[in-house]
Design a protein that fits this description.
Layout lengths: L1 H23 L14 E3 L1 E3 L3 E3 L2 E9 L3 E5 L4 E6 L6 E2 L4 E5 L2 H57 L5 H54 L2 E3 L4 E6 L6 E2 L4 E6 L5 E7 H11 L4 E7 L2 E10 L9 E9 L10 E7 L3 E7 L9 E6 L2 E6 L1 E7 L5 E6 L8 E3 L12 E3 L3
Helix pairs in contact: 2-3
C-alpha cells in the first residue's frame, strides 16, 4: 500500500518546491518614498516690547470697618427699625429697647446721690454748730473749775460738806468731757467729709452709669453703612452682651485676593512707592480697585500672600462676601511678547517654525495682556526666542519637534 501512495506524495512535494522557488526569485518592484504631508498653520512674528502684564486674581470683598452691635443692658426689644441689606446713615435709630428697667435704676441712683448730699450738708451744719458752741463750752468748763475751787476752800474751812465738793468735781468732769467731745468732733470733721465725698463720687458714678444705660436702650448707627445681619426681633428679651445687629461701612470695602509668590517679586518694590491699579467686571459694571498693601499674615496653605485692594468710587450694589475676579496691572516688563492663548502648549512651551518644521521653545508666562483692540492675550518672555522669529498660533493636537508645517498665506 505504501508503494501505491508514494508517487502522488512525491508529486505534491515537488510542486511545493517549485512554487517556493518562483516566489523567492521573482523581481522586486522599486519602492518610492512618500512625501510627508505638511500641516497648515497660522503664525505670528516675534516682536519684543515693554508691556504691562495683567494678573487675574480671585477673592472676596471684606469690610475692615464692621460693627457687631451688642446689648449693653438687659431689656425687652420694643422696636427694630431696619432689615438686612438696608442702608443707614450715622445716627439713624436701629433698635429701641424697653427703658423702664433702666429708668428705675436711674431713679434709684439719683435718690442715693441726693441722700449723700443731705448728709454732707448736715455734717457742714454740725461743724458750724460745734464751732459756735466751743467757746461757750470752754466758759462752762472754767465756771465748773471755779466752783470746785470754792467748794474745796469751804470744805477746808468746814463750811460745806464733802458731798458738795464731790458734786462740783463731777460737774467739772462732765463739762470737760463735753468740751473734749466737741473738740474731737471738729477735728474729725475733715475725715467724715472725705468719706461722704467718696460716697458721693461713687453715687455720682452710679448715676452716670444709669444715665448711660438709659441712653443705650436706643441703639443708633455708628456710621453710614449697610446692615449685613440682625439677630433679634420685636418682643425678644436680650441680656448684656447679646448680639443684636451687624453693619459695615460701604465706603471702606476691600477686596482680599491671594497673589502667587512668583509675582510678589515685582510687586514688593512698587508698593513701597505707589499703589497698583486693578479693574473688575461685576454684574455688567466695571469697578476700579487699588492694591494698597499686602496682608500681615501668610497663610501656611498658600504659596503667596493676600493682597488688599481698596475700592475706588461708589460701591453701588456690592456687598461683603461677594466673590470677585479682578485684573491687576503689574509694572512694565522689558522684552515681553504678547501671543494668543492658542500659541501656548502645556504650561511653558511654544513652537517656532524653521525651514517649515516645528521646533519647541521654552517660555515663561508673566501674565495676561489686553491689546489696543481690547483682545486678551498672553504675555511671555523667553531667552531662546529672537526678534522676528515665527511661532505657530494654531493649537495642533500632534505638535512635536520636526513636524512639517505650511504657513498660511505663503
Amino acid at each position: 500500500m505504501i508503494k501505491r501512495l508514494l508517487p502522488p506524495l512525491l508529486v505534491v512535494a515537488l510542486a511545493i518546491v517549485i512554487f517556493s522557488t518562483l516566489i523567492s526569485t521573482r523581481p522586486q518592484a522599486p519602492t518610492q518614498d512618500r512625501p510627508s504631508q505638511a500641516v497648515l498653520v497660522d503664525t505670528q512674528r516675534i516682536d519684543f516690547a515693554d508691556l504691562s502684564p495683567t494678573l487675574t486674581l480671585y477673592g472676596r470683598l471684606e469690610a475692615p470697618q464692621m460693627a457687631n452691635l451688642r446689648a449693653a443692658v438687659t431689656a425687652d426689644v420694643l422696636e427694630v427699625h431696619v432689615f438686612d441689606g438696608q442702608q443707614v446713615k450715622q445716627g439713624d435709630v436701629l433698635i429701641e429697647l424697653d427703658p423702664q428697667e433702666a429708668q428705675l435704676a436711674l431713679d434709684q441712683a439719683a435718690a442715693e446721690l441726693a441722700l449723700i448730699d443731705a448728709q454732707i450738708a448736715a455734717e457742714q451744719s454740725q461743724l458750724k454748730r460745734n464751732e459756735a458752741l466751743l467757746s461757750t463750752q470752754q466758759q462752762l468748763v472754767d465756771l465748773a473749775k471755779a466752783a470746785v475751787n470754792r467748794a474745796e476752800k469751804l470744805q477746808q474751812s468746814q463750811l460745806s460738806s464733802q458731798a458738795l465738793l464731790d458734786e462740783s468735781i463731777s460737774l467739772q468732769q462732765q463739762q470737760n468731757l463735753t468740751l473734749k467731745q466737741r473738740q474731737f468732733d471738729i477735728q474729725d470733721h475733715p475725715i467724715r467729709i472725705a468719706e461722704l465725698n467718696a460716697r458721693r463720687q461713687q453715687a455720682q458714678a452710679q448715676l452716670n452709669r444709669a444715665e448711660l444705660d438709659l441712653s443705650r436702650t436706643v441703639i443708633t448707627a455708628p456710621f453710614d453703612g449697610r446692615i449685613s445681619s440682625r439677630q433679634i426681633a420685636k418682643g425678644d428679651r436680650v441680656q448684656i452682651g447679646d448680639a443684636l445687629m451687624t453693619l459695615y461701612d460701604m465706603q471702606q470695602l476691600e477686596l482680599r485676593a491671594s497673589i502667587s509668590q512668583r509675582y510678589l517679586v515685582d510687586i514688593y518694590p512698587v508698593l513701597e512707592k505707589q499703589s497698583l491699579n486693578a479693574t473688575a467686571q461685576i454684574a455688567g459694571q466695571q469697578y476700579q480697585f487699588e492694591l494698597q498693601r499686602l496682608a500681615g499674615e501668610v497663610n501656611a496653605n498658600v504659596a503667596g500672600r493676600d493682597g488688599l485692594f481698596r475700592l475706588k468710587g461708589e460701591p453701588g450694589p456690592l456687598a461683603v462676601g461677594e466673590f470677585v475676579s479682578v485684573q491687576l496691572t503689574l509694572p512694565q516688563r522689558g522684552n515681553s511678547i504678547a501671543i494668543p492663548y492658542s500659541a501656548l502648549y502645556g504650561l511653558d512651551r511654544v513652537y517656532r517654525v524653521r525651514d517649515n518644521r516645528l521646533e519647541a521653545v521654552q517660555v515663561s508666562k508673566i501674565g495676561d495682556y489686553s491689546d489696543q483692540d481690547g483682545k486678551s492675550r498672553l504675555l511671555i518672555q523667553s531667552q531662546d526666542l529672537q526678534q522676528g522669529d515665527i511661532i505657530i498660533t494654531t493649537q495642533l493636537p500632534n505638535a512635536i519637534n520636526g513636524l512639517a508645517v505650511s504657513v498660511k498665506g505663503e
